[in-house]
Every structure is written in structure tokens, then in C-alpha cells.
Description:
mainly alpha, Ribonucleotide Reductase, subunit A
Amino acid sequence: MSRKIITPGDIRDHVLRLGDKYPPIPLESVDRTVKDPRAVRQTFGPVIDYLARVELEVDRNVLELLTLLPDVSETDRLFYADVWQPQEIQHGLILDRLQQDIDLAPADPNTDDVSAKIRILGSLAHLKPVQEVARLLYYLTGAATEKSAVVAYNALVDGLDRMGEDAISKTVVQPIRRQEPGHFAFYRLSATEMIQQNVLAPWQLRLARVLRRKSFAPVGAHTAAQKAQFGGLLTTLGLADKLEDLGSQMGLVERELLWARDQGMRVPDYILAALRDAVDQFRAQGTTAPA
């Protein structure tokens, strides 16, 4: 865990810097020139579709956040309403336009269906102790999501560069990738500040561990079909054989904050199990990643 004491002012300053440094990417700044649309579609079409859908589901993510955190702090509101949501929705729109350029159907995001699990937890969120647990889980989920996005976009950039698709690599994927680490830093700072300030009692931390273990799912992978699609993304991007490394990065914050007592833990077991399950479901379809 970081030894520096994080303050609410530090987090707010970080959010303000993010907003100033990384405004939403203008569509007109993107060069969507694709040298070989067929090759890009065959190799990375499902990856681009998955990423576009997840980015466009930001509005549902906001609904879930408001369900879980009815008394959201001003800094959290500033982050999700003024920085994160405008950036993420633009990522989705740009990726969706790209996939249509390579003759794929538009993304089909779920923008308004809050899950039953979220609604159940939200029904108790008016109780301050429950809302404190939910807030920590929100930060941990955000950190894992943003870290997995960085890894995926890194691999996609490498793949597009190898294909010589310079325009979409440099003006689509790389600008999106540059905005994700700042989101991860917000979640990490926020979760760390909660733990450092002893916001949660020991029983709340135990509850957070139980709920995190039972509720973890990779971003955008909640149904069996979506899990298989996520497994396909991992396979196509060359990550299926590096699941421990990926899981270690995704679980970095919760390993530090929830499981620090478990010395030697590299990857929370539920994260690694979820990644393996996604790859197994993809392989069970009898589908191979494009060459």
C-alpha cells in the first residue's frame, strides 16, 4: 500500500487535472483511414466491437453508481459526470464508427438495465455502513476495469502497428489509451484514502471481501455469451496465455487493500478463475482466434 497519506484534496486535484489535460476526443481529430478493412475486420473485428460496446455502456454504469451511492460525494460526482462519462462515451462513439467503417454492424450496448444484484444492494444503500462498503467496491471495480482496458488497448495498438494500420492506431486507439490510466489512478487514490482513514470497520472490510469474491466479473462480461466474447478478446490479443500477469494487474489495488494480510498472493483467486472461465467458454465454442 502507498505510504503517502491521500487526502480528499489530492483526489479532487487529480480529477480537475484529468478534466483539463484530457478533454473528450473530438471525432474530427480522428483519421479513420483503414488500409485493409477486411484484414482488420477478420483479425480485430470482435475486439473492436467488444470495446465499443463496453465504452458505450457508460450511461448504464452511471445508473448503477447512482443506485449504489445515492449520497455520492461531490468529488465522485465531478469525476463520473464531468470527466469520466464524457471521455468514455466519446471512446465508444469513435470505436463504433470505426467498426462500421470495416463493415461490422453497430455496437449494441445495454444502456439502461441495472442488474438485479445492483438493485438489491442499492435497496440497502441508504444505510451508511452499506453505502461505505458499496463505495469501496465501486472503486475496486473501477480500478480492475481500467487496468484491463489499458492492457487491452496496449495489445490492440501493437497488433494494428504490426499490420501497418498507422492512422487508426495513432488517432483512434492511442488517444483512447492515454485517457485510461488517469481513471485507474482516481479509483486507486479513492480506495486507498478510504482504507488509510479507517472509514470501514473490520466487519465492513470482511463483508467487502465476501462481496468482491462473489460478485467479480470482467468488464462487460455478465452473461455466458459475453464471457465467451471476452475470452475471445483475450485470445485474439494474445493474453489468454498470460492470465496470471493480467490478473495481477487487474487485482493490484484490491490485493493491496483487501488481501494484504495474505502474504505471497499475486493474483486474487476469483479474478484468475473468472479470466480462465472466459477463455474456457470461448474455446468451448470451437472457435479459434483469427490468425
